[in-house]
Amino acid sequence: MVESYVVRRVKSGIPGFDELIEGGFPENTTILVTGSTGTGKTTFGAQFIYKGAEEYGEPGVFVTLEERAKDLRREMLSFGWDFRKYEEQGLIAIVDGVSSSVGLPSEEKFALEDRFNIDNFLRYIYRVVKAINAKRLVIDSVPSIAFRLKEETQIREVLLKLNTILLEMGVTTILTTEAPDPSAGRISRYGIEEYIARGVVILDLQERNIELKRYLLIRKMRETKHSMRKYPFEITNSGIVVYPSGEIY
Looking only at Cα atoms, what is the longest distance across the chain? Predict the structure, then answer.
């Protein structure tokens, strides 16, 4: 008799999204969230971390490589998300990866060193994950890691190493990256990010009736039955909301 295999799921915290992926992300999986500028990638990742703490009591780490931690906190307050509250409770850790890179001292509890080294970076993230026993991790973003490397050609090696370490950490991870032109089939900056991830979610902006509308496509999700159609979503006052039933515009 063959034993049934049950995939443990991690809730995204994004209304309407989990019903598209059988109840949530497969546990301990690396998910790539990709899209052009302004599609909501950082918000998607931040919502995953914040709602994990607020609704499910799951600790999470947000590594910000594109903006300072204090700027991220301020922006997220517009959705009613008080990151500081859960940081003080030990449920969220924000790693400031920006201040030192631009030559500014960081006031944060968790901050990367001024000289970027991928091995040191991975070791540091590992320590922070273990320090709060994190179940969720967001790294925003892959191009910002590549930008800190001496040679962009290193990115493949770095991503493979990153993915291996993430799997060892036992966390469910969201990596964000840029999609230069999703309509032309280019869904990531370097063309390899989607291959190291076990799930790929594309956020897109399309013009409809002289207005830009937001759409989401689940390009890949291992161990999950999912549709390959585009679903509309909005960034509301309380965060991202996906509409599985279809067209709302």
Answer: 62
Quick one: pLDDT band at residue 249, thresholds 50, 70, 90?
very low
| Residue 15, both tokens | 């209304």
Q: Does domain 16-200 have CATH number 3.40.50.300?
A: yes
Predicted pLDDT at 4:
67
pTM more than 0.70: yes
Per-residue model confidence as pLDDT tens digits over 35-59: 999 999 999 999 999 999 999 999 9
Domains of the chain, residue spans: 16-200
- From the CB of residue 57, how many other CB atoms can be counted at a distance below 10 Å? 11
- 248 CB neighbour count, 10 Å cutoff: 11
Of residues 75, 114, 143, 82, the one with CA closest to residue 106: 114
Q: What angle do CA 54, 201, 135 make, to 5 degrees?
A: 35
